[in-house]
């Protein structure tokens, strides 16, 4: 279900009145496979998943293979309560605490600004965590799940960086991000009654009243993030600037892309740098 930002406040108030409608299980889960790259290849199925936050007792989803061999949890410490509910290797890599519902909902001063501004700030300031995310994905021996609380902002930007680094087209990255918008009514209903998020319903209500765009997944937000990546010379250059090696970039591409031909990360980086210089 797609909402405009102006509709979110009414939607949240409705959810608050119908807490019994809380959905069970992950509501924003998908396999990031089958996306087209600029060279005509596709991302592999069963390698990279994205979702909202899992809970103990969640039913197994209709996604195979499951459970993931590794989990990359992007939530801040305030959002964590006990061991992660999924088995397997868990990597806690907090990504920009200031965009988490737990932080925003408890500090009204953080409610200002657009999603585009938050995303560009995340890319400008949080380079090292993206390298850790990429390395954890490379090291995983099976499917890897990346998630935050809603699976929208931190997860959306982390996935966008990974996809851009292996050459997935801009339109495919945007399409993957805005898919979350169709799930947000159920995601927010689940967050509102989360035992792990104290006063979750009140936090969401505050966000909905003050800045409802923060609860949506608009195209303009991810487009601004991709523009920022371009300004920085592309995802490969961002990762390289934070310590990732060319061999690691090539390993990331082998991990994510069904390559019909050898993947050359250096050439991908050079092509992006040329495009950026031309556009500037």
Short structural description:
With 280 residues, the protein is α/β, with parallel strands linked by helices.
Summary keywords:
Protein-Tyrosine Phosphatase, Chain A, two-stranded antiparallel ribbon, five-stranded mixed sheet, globular, alpha/beta, 280 residues
* Total tally of structural domains: 1
Query: Quick one: CATH class?
Result: Alpha Beta
H/I helix tally: 12
Q: How many individual β-strands?
A: 7
Write the CATH homologous superfamily: Protein tyrosine phosphatase superfamily
Overall pLDDT score: 85
Rg (CA only)? 18 Å
User: Looking across the biggest beta sheet, what order are the strands in?
Assistant: 1-3-6-4-5
Question: Mind explaining what this structure looks like?
Answer:
The protein has helices at 8-17, 101-104, 115-125, 127-139, 154-165, 170-178, 184-192, 200-210, 219-231, 235-241, 246-256, 265-279, and strands at residues 30-31, 42-43, 48-51, 70-73, 89-92, 144-147, 257-258. The protein is α/β, with parallel strands linked by helices and 280 residues long. It has a single domain (5-279), classed as Alpha-Beta Complex (Protein-Tyrosine Phosphatase, Chain A). Strands 1-3-6-4-5 form a 5-stranded mixed beta sheet, covered by helices on one side. The chain has a two-stranded antiparallel ribbon with strand order 2-7.
